[in-house]
Amino acid sequence: MDSVVRSVNVKLRKGFEADIFKYPQVKGELTELSYEVAARANALGAGFRTGYYNGRGGTQPRYVGERARETRKGSVAIVHPKNYAAMKDDYLHNTMLKSI
């Protein structure tokens, strides 16, 4: 499976870089992007299972996108593994990097 990594390089004025992440519209966009990345990571990790619990299949990896938060420098949105299966899947297959 080929993965496409999106990269955007934009030259901005020095002071403008910090200011752009303080707008509420950017905060909403970052929240949507974190949800999209988490959904793609969940889709990529769907075939991976770890552990056995009471003889059943195993635990499927689960990634979660958080809402954007305000920091001193602007808004930040985080995507992180929710369970051990997701941590192991990300370690073995770089799932979060591939989902960007």
The run of helices and strands is: HHEEEEHH
Main β-sheet: number of strands, strand sense, barrel status? 2 strands, antiparallel
Distance between the termini: 15 Å
Q: DSSP strand (E) fraction? A: 5-15%
| Poorly predicted parts | 1-5
- Count of folded domains: 1
Structural class: alpha+beta
Total number of beta strands: 4
Q: Estimate percent helicity.
A: 40-55%
- Helical stretch count? 4
Global shape: elongated
How would you sum up this structure, described in words?
Helices cover 42% and strands 12% of the residues. It has helices spanning 14-20, 24-44, 84-93, 95-98, and strands spanning 63-65, 69-71, 74-76, 79-81. The strands form 2 sheets. Strands 1-4 form a two-stranded antiparallel ribbon. A two-stranded antiparallel sheet has the order 2-3. The protein is an alpha+beta fold and 100 residues long.
